[in-house]
Amino acid sequence: MIQHIVLYPIIVHLLLAILLLFSWNSIKIQKIISAAGSVLSLLVAIWLFSTVWNEGTLTIQAGNWEAPFGITFVADAFAATMVLLTAISGIAVSYFSIGTILKARLKFGYLPILHFLLLGLNGAFLTGDIFNLYVWFEIIIISSFVLITLGGEKKQLEGAVKYFTLNIFASVIFLTAVAVLYGLTGSLNMADLSLKVAAIENRGLVEVTAILFLIGFGIKAAIFPLYFWLPASYHTPPPAVSAVFGGLLTKVGVYALIRVFTLIFVGDAFLETIILTLAGLTLFVGAIGALVQNNISKIFSYLIISHIGFMILGLGLYTEAAIAGAIFYIIHDIVVKTNLFMVSGLIYRLKGTMSMKNLGGIYAKHPLLSLLMLVPLFSVVGIPPLSGFWPKLSLITESFKIENYWLIGAIIFATFITLFVIARIWAEVFWKEGKKLPTIQNFRYFHLLKLEKKIQILGPIAFLAFISLYIGFGAENIQQLAERVGTELMNNQLYIESVLGNIKEQP
Amino acid sequence: MKTIILRTASNYLLPLLLLFSIFILLRGHYLPGGGFVGGLIASIAFVLHAFANGLENTKNLIKMHPGFLMPVGLLVAFLAGVSPALISNLPFMTGIWFPEPLAVIGMVGSALFFDIGVYLVVIGVSLTIIFTITESA
């Protein structure tokens, strides 16, 4: 059965995590398994993606129970793209972790938990059942709690408490929303929900449920006004962990928002206004936050928030081109944000600090490394032809069509501030004359590392930088993909039919 | 808590509770019970033994680190989930059953092995947590 591939990305990571647990006592074997397994998962993700691209949406019923009673797994173009991005980001983070994470952390199960996290991400993207989505979210947040606290430094625990509290709160709201939705319709299958919710006459009740989902996913995606846990916690764990969090975790929230609001709660003018307002405010507030920070890792955290606004904006505009723009932005953002945090890790290795005031002189000392780091930094701004430029173009065009000049203002403001912030990082960290920093005892500076370790740090950064460049220069391919995803999401009939079969034949 | 009554009782309770946990595990498919509850009861048996005889004695009794049961249990559950796809090309997690019921146990299918996996994971997790806390206290 060709449909089996839908579950392979999940199964690969589950098997990897089990194997990693078996080799608990030997970090060396764990590293080999994780490195080889990440390659395998990338190959599986490419296989799934190309199959979905050529043959259309694939579905499988876990346990062979017919939809809508059993749990359906659906790989449409959107889910397959997200799985592919997870694999790309996952392979980079896996190698970067092998190179940079301290032995003390690896010894307490860092790598198994990382693969459990990737398992949860793949599951969340592939599931077609709203309660199952909740279960995958739980796997994701439990793994992320372990990753964020592992090592037990004081600032880590402080950040983890904030992270933990708000994410648990979001899960509770999400679960409540699922319960209310089940009470309204008696179904949990997303395709079935789409049909049943459309038939409910009391629209007020549906809107309240939708708002509950918006709050639950909104906290996870860090949109205004519930974003403040993110900058409080994302700079505390090691850069490898921040990279996977910054690249992928908030995007799961965005994925869930897009999925739910294009499939289940569709065509509600009230909700669209709310989403658009939130998007504009997120763009604005995140950008303002990034202006005043000194720690580069914190600046990147605020940029994550600001740029979530672009994706939500595409959802709020709710036209095919706008959603395609949001999808393009997600593709660009996952790659580039993962890379940004790895770059901050590299800077930390070079200088022993992340404070912009103390940094400086990297360009004079390491011109080639600086050029490498230039790619993700300038991609995030979207200087044409780098990757951030293209999705903004379609978002602005679509905003013009509805003549909402506040939104255009917010987009331009956020982009301008991003440019300003990145330019300041470039000036302060790379161009400014370097201060003489006190040497930290026992700190493993970059030039002290073995060649093997250096490759493990630089390889992932170069890999993701290359993909960023491809997204920028091969934009027509990505645009084609984004448009296909946009079309599929806007015509959700296709999704429903591939899950439930031909609806008209049913009584 | 080294009273002679508890110590004597725990020596009898340990095998009894373990048997009871397996009974609960097997009962689970159609009636209340299953791997999770069974695993909890089995770990209670060991915790009671540790209360009465000291942690060291219990560890000697188990002979291996309870944490090792986690990957073993996960692997059993994983294989139970994958087996329908490997054996008869059905979707993952489909229940496949032996045609005839076995004596005492009843009907045996892949769901039972999934439950056994859960049983082992629960024992592993709860004993690891309790042992670690007891050691650091």
Can you put this structure into words, describing what you see?
The complex is a heterodimer of chains A (507) and B (137). Chain A has 507 residues and is mainly alpha-helical. Chain A has one domain. Helix content of chain A is 76%, strand content 2%. Chain A is built from 21 helices and 2 strands. Chain A has helices at 8-22, 27-55, 77-100, 103-107, 110-126, 130-149, 154-185, 190-198, 203-221, 229-233, 239-263, 269-291, 296-317, 320-351, 362-365, 367-381, 389-401, 405-431, 451-473, 475-490, 493-500, and strands spanning 58-62, 71-75. Chain A has a two-stranded antiparallel ribbon with strand order 1-2. In chain A, strand 1 (58-62) and strand 2 (71-75) form a beta hairpin. The radius of gyration of chain A is 22 Å and the shape is globular. Chain B has 137 residues and is mostly helical. Chain B has one domain (4-136). Chain B is 72% helix and 0% strand. Chain B has helices at 4-27, 35-53, 55-62, 69-88, 110-136. The longest helix of chain B is centred in the C-terminal third of the chain and has 27 residues, at 110-136. Chain B is elongated and about 55 Å long. Chain B: InterPro entries: CPA3_antiporter_subunitB, MnhB. Chain B: It comes from Planktosalinus lacus. Chain B: This is Na(+)/H(+) antiporter subunit B. Chain B: The chain crosses the membrane at residues 12-30, 36-55, 67-87, 107-133. Chain B: Belongs to the CPA3 antiporters (TC 2.A.63) subunit B family. Chain A: One of its GO terms (biological process) is ATP synthesis coupled electron transport.
